[in-house]
Amino acid sequence: MKLPGFDHIGTGRNVSGLIGSSAALFLLQRGRRFIALTRTEEAARLLARDLAFFASLLHQRAPLFLPAPVDKLTAPRLAAVAAITGDDPDDLVASVETALAPIWSAAALRREALVFRPGDEFDEDFVREILEELGYRQALLVADAGEYAFRAGLVDLFPAASEHPVRLGHADGAITTLRSFDVDTQRSFRDLREVVLFPLREPAGGDSLFGLLEGHSPVAVDPIDEPVSGLPPLELILERSGGGGGHRAPPPRRPRAHPP
Q: Which of 85, 195, 212, 242 fits 106 for a cystine, CB–CB 3.0-4.6 Å?
């Protein structure tokens, strides 16, 4: 399958007339790293889908979709933090609102995380205190992420962004076993070498996506007509069109400065 090229399009800051999924193909064929911003979460999700499709045809690594933060730290957000702050960060798709929201950095997550390994020392009072600081709550029976339960010689934990809870066995002040277990049957089914408990909640403040990815040029895929506080100057506006010519958006403007 031969994909169309965009060699005829100039290098100006605005490109118009993109129809359907052509914006995704255009971004991949530019050959430059990008953060693609959209006005809405749904538009970001659809763009990420189109990018993944064309990336597979072009034998490229698919850009990462950063979902909007919710009350709890989720697996997709956790994966995004690891991918975008590594040595070779992925290209990224997000809505403007998501891109401006505080996000954990990988370094901050490592500092805050609680790590368990078989053979490590275990102090019940200390672990209870740290669990509370991380936002976890005590329950009679662990069934949802962010819950924990202490029993004689056992601690059930449901780490943030994990698919299954963990059963920690301890004796004589040391961890003896770590095993995943099924919520419905309560039966253990897999031994674990390590369990990492990340904070349950998204950060209340701190860096946004742009603070973590300095030098990664933001690209607007939907026309963003009004300046947005905290949004860096946009490198390019891609205008989608449902039919022929499309309309032209105003050039990107720098955001208003925050008052002192």
A: 85
Distance CA 213, CA 151 (A): 44
218 and 179 in a common domain: no
Per the domain annotation, does 247 fall within a domain?
A: no
Domain residue limits at 221: 14-107+202-240
Q: Where are the beta strands (DSSP E) in the chain?
A: 14-18, 35-38, 64-65, 92-95, 114-116, 137-138, 147-151, 154-157, 166-171, 174-181, 188-191, 195-197, 218-220, 237-240
Q: Are 169 and 175 in contact (CB under 8 A)?
A: yes
pLDDT in tens, the chain (260 residues): 455 554 544 445 667 777 778 889 988 888 777 888 888 999 999 999 999 999 999 999 888 898 998 878 887 888 777 777 666 667 889 998 998 888 888 788 888 888 999 999 999 999 999 999 899 999 999 988 899 999 989 999 999 878 899 999 999 999 999 999 998 888 888 999 999 888 888 888 888 887 777 656 677 777 666 667 777 777 777 765 543 333 333 333 333 344 44
Shared-domain flag, residues 85 and 134: no
Exposed, middle or buried, 65 (CB in 10 Å: 0-12/13-18/19+)? buried
| pTM across the whole model | 0.70
Whether 113 and 197 have beta carbons less than 8 Å apart is answered as: yes
